[in-house]
Amino acid sequence: MNTEENEIIRVSIVEDHDIFRKRLTELLHFYKHLKVVLVANSAEQFFEKLGRTAEDNFPQVILMDIELPGASGIEATFQLKEKHPEVDIIMFTVFEDDERIFESIQVGAAGYLLKDTPIDDVVNSIKEIREGGSPISPAIARKLLTMVKSGNTPDKPAAERKEVPFDLSPAELNILEHVIDGKSNKEIAEDVFLSPWTVKTHIKNIYKKMHVNSRAAAVRLALKRNIV
Amino acid sequence: MNTEENEIIRVSIVEDHDIFRKRLTELLHFYKHLKVVLVANSAEQFFEKLGRTAEDNFPQVILMDIELPGASGIEATFQLKEKHPEVDIIMFTVFEDDERIFESIQVGAAGYLLKDTPIDDVVNSIKEIREGGSPISPAIARKLLTMVKSGNTPDKPAAERKEVPFDLSPAELNILEHVIDGKSNKEIAEDVFLSPWTVKTHIKNIYKKMHVNSRAAAVRLALKRNIV
DNA sequence: TAATAAATCACCCGAACGGGGTATTATTGA
DNA sequence: TCAATAATACCCCGTTCGGGTGATTTATTA
Prior knowledge:
2 copies of one chain form a homodimer.
Chain A: E1 9-14, H1 18-29, E2 34-40, H2 43-51, E3 61-65, H3 73-83, E4 88-93, H4 98-107, E5 111-114, H5 119-130, H6 138-149, H7 170-180, H8 185-192, H9 196-210, H10 215-224
Parallel strand pairs in A: 1-2, 1-3, 3-4, 4-5
Chain A binds a DNA duplex through helix 9.
């Protein structure tokens, strides 16, 4: 779409495994149309460094490990996409985990590669994703096909996909449901036997966790992601 | 699963394009672990020949052209799977057609390959499908990924995705979408080039039609009923 | 046990919301 | 053609919301 032949693509690597991260960084340095602008070993460090990054050095493509200590790569991807939807994210994993593929797609990752993908393919994927593509390892593609066949799709059954995103507390989850029902804080307070102030506090915390700032947005997100 | 190293796999080809069919047949003959037991140029001929096939010569894997004259390859796959669910079917196509991918999967095809797939990959796919895999061309895998991302899944039939309850006017529908996006009246007004007062009036009318009295409730109803 | 985190309650403020009106134009359709 | 119906715009008023700040209590766990 927007890639000139010799444009330099700014790449970022988020990976906790020291050796893997170093080797990958070194390898990418051999490709002169790529520039590794930011390397982090955790989501926290990534965001911390990102905050100190100048606009013209902002990463365009991020290779994100799906298994990160602390905030997972999926959570990090979600947060990043909220703020910077224009950034392309490729998830990296050693696993062919069903759930995580869909989760990654849902939070906005466009690509999904196994860690043993040959470096040339990784580099091609970076280019491809910049052009609007969705690079994906063949092994994962097959998995995906199987999932689609069995109807195990993300928008579908709530029953089969049970986990709770945004790690909302039980109380928060409960209150969120009331919000979805269109109730006011006062009404909710009466229902759950809490002070309206407390309900309000909970809702503020829910907003923070979900990265929204209104009831409508919270309802939409909650329903879209089936957390009710 | 059930493949011994030197088992001979019986393969069938259903393809109306004469030259392509012949070339493919010839190519497969070079692989001694494959045996082309049945070649047809249409679904009708295929079933006709199949009826006269002895049990011990029954095809185990079928390479089926998706674009057949008369009954399509999808229709043929459906019928064949009814009678012989144990047969593995790989759909062959020159197109990367969205609908057909899902249709093929739905009727029971396990693999989906582009016709320009290198012969070696075709042969590998035949082996793979016998082992319970789902061979798929990378280009198609990407398409599939995009489809899953956009939620354009076959399980949500196109029909029920479209209906518009509450007979909201186009303007109201438009504004409702903005509400679902969590926007304020003022923001919506700017987006749709209307006065905030007008937006408010519209929203009040939307509430009346939907029998709700808050944004959150409207969002929930709209999403539950797929108005958007 | 000491430090931390989570849950609860409280207050202020400005902005946005929802509900009740009224009025002016099209547009249409009987 | 004339009446009904949208669509548009505006006002008032009381309520609710969202954000910021901070206190107290209760697990939790390091």
